[in-house]
Design a protein that fits this description.
380 residues, mainly alpha
């Protein structure tokens, strides 16, 4: 299969959620009233994402990978009208369905990557996939807020539904609906036994833990930057612009991938975590909504982008070939845990401290991750 064509699938899949990245926290803030309650909501719905990811193999075992992917696409389309509702209950139900859809789509699409792209070609395909994802995530946040404010509050949700259906048509045009995954990718047993098997392997634990930290920083950046900019008086568009510019740094991923291949993953991860930790700490020090703070947030996102230069290579190299499929669902929970941990932590911190505390906490866990990066084998 053509790598560029296959990577294009991930642009569509990412656009379905990217256009709502900054819209959802702002919408939640409008409906719920304060940042602490928004944190609680994102904490709760992230539990749905984790549960969904851990049980996807059981769903695949019953329905098959194609129909499980189809359920994810339909769920993404159906969550749009719920999210657009004016009532908090409808919005919360839409969030549950949205996070379930993300889990279904990401697990099944990753299994298709494992099946269709050889281990030897993963190093070339992964940068293309990341570029496709980040292109959608760079366009989406600002586009969603701009359309919501300048055109129609319901238009971002309509784009999500339409993008999901168009992406499904593209999926079929690639012939992936005729692809049968290996039996090992459909035969996962009890999810708790798979969890035990996964976390019994130190290299998989390390790959997962470092990915959680990276994902958690991006979640904090995406959720709390728009909220802070609104509260500081800078405005919604400024917050959305910072998120879009920050995610656009990922266009430098091919360069950081080259750095990782020439200097090693240990060097790349240490550089990325340390840079992001320092700059995020400076954001906390200058958390007054000024342009200096905005600039620091954008450059901190560049530090986090260094980490994306490795993509999921650390996992790909650590997982045993015969276990790749059953371990993928567990590994991908790093995104859900990354979405769960910051809102849960911040819901507690924001009861005592002001909103800038989120940047101090994010800086601390990135410093911790930089320290753990020394456990990456030198040969990687």
């Amino acid at each position: 299969m053509n790598h560029c064509a296959f990577a294009g699938l991930f642009f569509g899949l990412s656009l379905t959620r990217g256009v709502l990245l900054s819209v959802l926290p702002l919408r939640a803030l409008d409906l719920l009233g304060d940042a602490q309650q928004v944190s609680v909501l994102f904490f709760v719905v992230s539990l749905v994402g984790i549960t969904s990811a851990l049980t996807q193999h059981l769903l695949i075992r019953i329905l098959g990978s194609y129909h499980t992917f189809l359920i994810g696409i339909y769920s993404m389309a159906l969550c749009a009208p719920l999210l657009a509702m004016e009532h908090p209950v409808g919005f919360v139900l839409g969030m549950f369905l949205h996070f379930f859809a993300i889990a279904s789509i990401e697990v099944t699409s990753s299994l298709y990557v494992m099946h269709c792209v050889s281990r030897r070609e993963l190093g070339r395909f992964e940068p293309l996939r990341v570029l496709a994802v980040v292109a959608a995530l760079s366009i989406g946040p600002f586009l969603g807020v701009w359309l919501s404010e300048e055109v129609s509050a319901t238009l971002p949700y309509a784009i999500t539904a339409i993008s999901a259906l168009v992406t499904f048509i593209y999926f079929r045009s690639l012939g992936l609906h005729r692809t049968r995954l290996l039996e090992s990718s459909r035969g996962a047993g009890n999810p708790f036994s798979v969890l035990k098997k996964f976390f019994a392997q130190p290299r998989l634990r390390l790959a997962w833990g470092l990915s959680v930290a990276r994902s958690s920083w991006w979640v904090a950046f995406i959720i709390y930057t728009p909220i802070f900019m609104r509260n500081s008086g800078a405005g919604d568009l400024v917050g959305a612009a910072i998120v879009s510019i920050g995610t656009a740094w990922t266009l430098t991923v091919p360069f950081w991938g080259w750095v990782g291949r020439t200097r090693g993953l240990r060097f790349l991860y240490t550089l990325g975590y340390s840079t992001t930790a320092v700059l995020t700490g400076l954001v906390f020090c200058f958390a007054d909504g000024s342009m200096l703070m905005a600039g620091l947030l954008i450059v901190a996102a560049l530090g986090a982008t260094i980490l994306d230069g490795a993509g999921n290579i650390l996992f790909f190299r650590a997982v045993r070939p015969l276990q790749r499929a059953e371990m993928t669902g567990v590994f991908l929970t790093y995104r859900d845990v990354g979405q769960l941990a910051p809102p849960g932590l911040f819901a507690l911190l924001l009861k005592v401290f002001a909103l800038p505390v989120v940047f101090a906490a994010a800086s601390m866990w990135m410093f911790t991750s930089a320290a753990f990066s020394r456990y990456i084998p030198k040969r990687m």
